[in-house]
Structures are given as structure tokens and as C-alpha cells.
Specification:
The complex is a heterodimer of chains A (182) and B (274).
Chain A lengths: L33 H134 L5 H9 L1
Helix pairs in contact in A: 1-2
Chain B lengths: L15 E3 L3 E4 L2 E4 L2 E2 H20 L8 H22 L7 H20 L18 H23 L14 H51 L7 H43 L6
Antiparallel strand pairs in B: 1-4, 2-3
Classes of the chains: A mainly alpha (182), B mainly alpha (274).
């Protein structure tokens, strides 16, 4: 290939098959091999470049972008859901506190009503009781009065009998009466 | 038993594998035969396309393969193009990713497929250690930047080499410097990648030769047995250097892609600060 090939032996002094190129320096500077390598490299570069442009870069780049977008979207979703959950929790808490307030109000009202009713009933019962007591007292007074009247009569009779036994004569009823009253 | 000659350049020899017809264009004969260089380029291209297609399943929860593919894509998207060019950089991701993946795969194949040498297969060929390949890639980058720049900015592209807000003598001086540095870009891109890959592989081959030569020397017995020590030392150095070459394989692909991104940024965001 190279016109200088084999013109001078290599430094080792042994001309072998391998030294045929070494005399002219680097085999890379053998320009005869250049056109073929350059042409093939241009063809292969173009092929690889077109495959990259049309297939590989869209695929791999698309996969990476898709993943990034998915991660971003998922995070955004999660953030939105968290906000929603927080709002729901806040609403629940508010509802709970209002319900508690309502219940307290109801309880207070019920207690007040019950107390009112209780007081009314108590008053009613007390009135009934007072009436009964009054009736009973009146009865007792009447009974006592009649009893006292009887006592006077019995006293007079007893006195008459005592007088009759002692004196042998009957005391008149008027005398007995005045004596009994004294 | 005679020691084989130390010939670290043998691995860069381009050999024809399949003869194909050549054509002539503008007086230049282009031999389209499949050489070991072309075969390795093809293997790298096919491998990276198959890998990235398999990695492009697009599942929300990625598997191992998809994670690996997306990590490599992330190097370009969120480490280089995104921070350097910004939102305007999205259309250039396929271009930068192509450069990165091609260089990375070809570098990597040059290192890891050398395991085939143990089985006697001569698979150790690194297309990125061929100046023809790195120069082509550098020129693709250079002209892409130029074409994109002129499409986006038209005549305003002169701002790339003419700094604003300077007095006239300063402007002329900076214009010359900027122009030279702009034109030197494809050269530096090509030489950096070529030199790194070439150097690493030459060093590996030299230490590999040491293992054989010192081992054979040690077999002659006596004090020469110390040769085994040297051979073992050389072998451990090969192991360490292979690990280093794996890092270099990634790093050089990254550097090439990063510089391509920086150059693209200059024309995409021309006149927006910087």
C-alpha cells in the first residue's frame, strides 16, 4: 500500500511480516486507507444519527419526560388530595363543635324545662297537701270541739252523780252547768 | 526461542477483510472494501443502536437496561446540552448523543474486545485510534456548527470572531486570534481523541510485549529468572492500564461531546452574553 513499505527494517533489526508498515511511521498516516474509512464512517454516522433522531431520542427522552410529568402530576394530585382532606377534616371539626354546642344548648333547655315542671308539680302537690292538711285540721278542730262539748256534758253528769251520792239530793241541771263552766 | 519484535503499531494496521468494488469521485479512488476498521465501526454502530433500542422501552419504572440507556442519555441531556445550551438545545440532542455514543462505543470496543486476543482472534482494533475517523468526526462537528450557525444567525456569524466593545487595534488582534482558534478546532478535536486512544493502546501493547519477552528471557534459567518478576510486573501494569483505558474511553467520548456542545452553544446563543 505504502510506497515506503519494507524500504527499511524496523528498529529490532529483524525484517518480519509485521514490520512492513512500521518503517513509514504510524499506519494511521497511510493515506491510502483513508477514503474507505472516511466514506464508511460518514455512512455509519448518518445512519446512527437518523436512528437517533427518528427513534431513539424520542423514545428515551419521551420516557424520561413522561416519568417526570407523571411524578409531578402524582405529587400535585397528592397535594390536592391532602388539601381536600384537610378541608374535610376542618369541616368535620366545625360540625362536631357546632353539634356539641347544640347538644349543650338542648341539654340546658331540657334541664331548665324539667326543673320548671318539677317546680310546678312540687307547688301543685304542696297546694294539694296544704288543702288536705287544712281539711284535716278543720275536721280535727270540729272533732275536738264536739269532744270538748261532750266532755262538759260528761263532767256535768259525773258531777251530778257525785253530788247525788254525797248529798243525797239531785243537783239541778242549771247548777251543774254553772259549776261545770267554773 | 527468539523473542517476537516489539511492534505496538501492528494493531493499527488496516487490513481488508471483504473485497468490495471501489469508485472514483473527483479523481479520488474510494475503496469501499470492508476492512477491520470498517467492520469495527459497523459492529459499534449496530451494537449501540441495538442497545439503545432495547433500552428505549419507555417504562415508568425502568429495568436495568433501560436505566443504563437513560443514564447515558442523561449525560447528554442534563449534564451537557441542558446546562450549556439551555432550552434552545433540545434539537441538538440527537447530534451530540450520536457523537458521544459512537466515540464511546468504538473506544470501549477497542478495549474490551481485546479479550478476544486470548482466543487468538485479532479483534483489537480501535477505529477512534485512526486519524481518518477522528478527523472525519471532527470535521462533521465543525461543519455542522458552521451550517447551524449560518442558518440561525446569517451574516451575524461574524460576531463569533469579532469581539464587541473593543477599540480598533484590539479588535483586529482578537479577530486574528479568534479566527485561528476557530479554525484550529477540528484539528484539536481530531488530534485529542486520536492521540489519547493511540497512546493508551501503544502503552498496553508495549507492556504486553514485555510480558512475553521477559517471560521468554526468564525461561533461559539462572539469574535471568528475574525476568519472570518483570513479566509479572508488566502484566499487573496491563491490568491497571486497562482499567484506566476504560475511564479514558468514556472520558474522551464525554470531552468530544462536551466540546461539540460548547461549539454549538456559541452559534445557537450567539450574542446572548457569554
Amino acid at each position: 500500500m505504502n510506497p515506503e513499505d519494507g524500504a527499511a527494517p524496523a528498529a529490532t533489526g529483524e525484517p518480519t511480516a509485521a514490520t512492513e508498515h512500521a518503517s513509514g511511521g504510524l499506519p494511521q498516516f497511510d493515506v491510502a486507507t483513508w477514503p474507505g474509512q472516511i466514506a464508511w464512517f460518514l455512512i455509519l454516522f448518518l445512519l446512527v444519527f437518523l436512528t437517533m433522531k427518528k427513534v431513539i431520542v424520542p423514545r428515551i427522552g419521551g420516557a424520561i419526560e413522561g416519568r417526570d410529568a407523571k411524578i409531578e402530576g402524582d405529587i400535585a394530585d397528592a397535594r390536592r388530595m391532602k388539601t381536600e382532606a384537610d378541608a374535610a377534616a376542618a369541616a368535620g371539626a366545625a360540625e362536631l363543635s357546632s353539634a356539641r354546642a347544640n347538644a349543650q344548648k338542648l341539654a340546658t333547655e331540657a334541664r331548665a324545662k324539667a326543673q320548671g315542671e318539677l317546680a310546678a308539680r312540687l307547688a301543685e302537690e304542696e297546694a294539694k297537701l296544704a288543702a288536705t292538711t287544712a281539711v284535716a285540721e278543720a275536721g280535727i278542730a270540729k272533732a275536738r270541739e264536739s269532744a270538748m262539748a261532750n266532755v262538759a256534758t260528761i263532767g256535768a253528769e259525773t258531777a251530778g252523780l257525785i253530788v247525788e251520792r254525797l248529798t243525797g239530793s239531785k243537783a239541778s241541771a242549771a247548777e251543774l252547768k254553772t259549776a261545770g263552766n267554773a | 526461542m527468539a523473542a517476537p519484535p516489539i511492534d505496538p503499531m501492528h494493531q493499527f494496521l488496516v487490513e481488508k477483510l471483504i473485497e468490495l468494488p471501489s469508485f472514483t469521485i473527483g479523481g479520488l479512488t474510494v475503496d469501499m472494501s470492508i476492512t477491520n476498521s470498517v467492520a469495527m465501526m459497523m459492529a459499534a454502530s449496530v451494537a449501540l443502536i441495538v442497545f439503545l433500542l432495547a433500552a428505549g422501552k419507555g417504562q415508568v419504572v425502568p429495568g436495568r437496561l433501560q436505566s443504563a440507556g437513560e443514564a447515558l442519555y442523561g449525560v447528554i441531556d442534563s449534564v451537557l446540552v441542558g446546562p450549556i445550551i439551555g432550552h434552545a438545545g433540545k434539537p441538538y440532542i440527537p447530534f451530540v448523543f450520536t457523537i458521544f455514543m459512537l466515540v464511546f462505543t468504538m473506544n470501549l470496543f477497542g478495549v474490551i474486545l481485546s479479550i478476544g486476543n486470548l482466543a487468538g482472534l485479532e479483534l483489537t482494533f480501535t477505529p477512534t485510534a485512526q486519524l481518518a475517523v477522528t478527523a472525519t468526526l471532527a470535521l462533521i462537528t465543525f461543519f455542522s456548527v458552521l451550517v447551524i450557525g449560518f442558518m440561525k444567525n446569517g451574516y451575524k456569524m461574524y460576531k463569533l470572531v469579532v469581539p464587541s466593545g473593543m477599540n480598533l487595534p484590539m479588535t483586529i488582534m482578537l479577530f486574528i486570534i479568534e479566527t485561528i482558534s476557530f479554525i484550529a478546532r477540528p484539528l484539536t478535536l481530531a488530534m485529542r481523541l486520536f492521540g489519547n486512544m493511540l497512546g493508551g493502546h501503544v502503552v498496553l501493547a508495549i507492556f504486553g510485549s514485555f510480558v512475553v519477552i521477559l517471560g521468554l528471557f526468564g525461561m533461559s534459567g539462572g539469574i535471568a529468572m528475574l525476568g519472570f518478576l518483570g513479566a509479572g510486573l508488566s502484566f499487573s501494569l496491563i491490568v491497571a492500564l486497562t482499567a484506566l483505558e476504560l475511564i479514558v474511553a468514556f472520558l474522551q467520548a464525554f470531552v468530544f461531546a462536551a466540546l461539540a456542545t460548547v461549539y454549538l452553544n456559541e452559534v445557537v446563543n450567539l450574542g446572548h452574553g457569554h
